[in-house]
Amino acid sequence: MHPGHFACQGCGAPLAMRYVIRALGKRTVVVIPAGCFSVIQSPFPYSTMKVPVVHCAFETAASTASGIRAALDMNGNGDVHVLAWAGDGATFDIGLQALSGAAERNENIIYGCYDNEAYMNTGIQRSSATPYGAWTTTTPERQFKDSPKKNIIEILAGHKIPYAATASVAYPEDLARKAEKARDMKGTRFLHILAPCPPGWRSSTEKTIKIARLATLTKVFPLYEVINGEEYIINVQPKKIPVSEYFKHQMRFRHLKEEEIKDIQKRVDYEWERLLNRSMMEGFNNK
Questions:
Q1: Which residues, including other chains, have CB under 8 Å from residue 23's CB and lie 6 or more apart?
Q2: 2 assigned to some structural domain
Q3: Quick check: is 4 in a domain?
Q4: Which residue, 116, 84, 79, 102, is CA-closest to 20?
Q5: Contact call for residues 221 and 166 (beta carbons, < 8 A)
Q6: b or e along 146-159 (b: 16 or more beta carbons within 10 Å of the residue's beta carbon)?
Q7: Residue 192 is part of a domain; what is its CATH number?
Q8: Could you report the per-residue pLDDT of 194-206, keeping only the tens digit for each?
Q9: Terminal CA-CA length for the chain
């Protein structure tokens, strides 16, 4: 990326893009639907990207990427990578149908979701990636989000795609390694990248990396890979840090009562144990 993008101070999304595009190289076409990054990469005719960019409608990142992949292959450009790059709204919600279709067909594309856990560029409305208990402008403090975050990796793993992984801007080496791994594989590859948003998370801009790291160390956002929908590999072992330590740096959780935080802690511990058990199972393809 060139300097001079339009991201807010402390935004995790351009960091995520920088690590991924560095791994994929210049022979890459990036597909960007409506969302924060359609603004971040700057308006036409300007661009902060050093590779071709195709803007598309909100729900069409995966289908547009699939079409570009087919056109490149027909013209003998099979060595060009196609990266769909969408936020959680365009992935978990509006674009899920197109993503599911592409994954079911095992289209030869890489799909990167930079997850800031709400529709941030239109005013911080909740998405299905917004965690339980979080404040947004459509889930105000007295009526905070009362349903859990959708498990997008489980959905993609259910399609039995070759590669799905979580990643975080707080662990750049891990993120770069996963992007390189996705680069060297064929079929649909999916990267779910946690990218904090200071305005939406109501956090200090200088704490982006600290908060992202706490998300992993408290087991709220574990880092792991899923191979062929069967084999689970955990990449970072969390520490015994309570979720309250993660919450206290974000004003979007300040309204939660002690009992509510205890309930969230129980859910986080349960989901971690469930993931741990999955990682100890041998993949069906390995039997």
A1: 176, 179, 180, 183
A2: no
A3: no
A4: 84
A5: yes
A6: eeebbebbebbbeb
A7: 3.40.50.970
A8: 999 999 999 999 9
A9: 43
Q: How many domains are contained in the chain? A: 1
Q: Does residue 226 lie within any of the structural domains? A: yes
pTM tops 0.85, yes or no: yes
Domain that holds residue 229: 12-280
The per-residue pLDDT for range 202-239, each reduced to its tens digit, is 999 999 999 999 999 999 999 999 999 999 999 999 99
15-49 core/surface letters (b: 16 or more CB in 10 A; e: else):
bbbbbbbebbeeebbbbbbbbbbbebbbeeeebbb
Query: What is the distance, to the nearest Å, from the Cα of residue 127 to the centroid of all Cα atoms in its chain?
Result: 13
Short-list 130, 78, 113, CA closest to 191: 113
Gap between the Cα atoms of 28 and 71, Å rounded: 14
Specify burial of residue 251 (Cβ count, 10 A radius: 0-12, 13-18, 19+).
middle
**Do residues 203 and 196 touch, judged by C-beta distance below 8 A?**
yes
Residue 275 lies in a domain: yes
Strand order in the sheet with 231-234: 53-55, 28-32, 81-87, 110-115, 189-194, 163-168, 224-227, 231-234
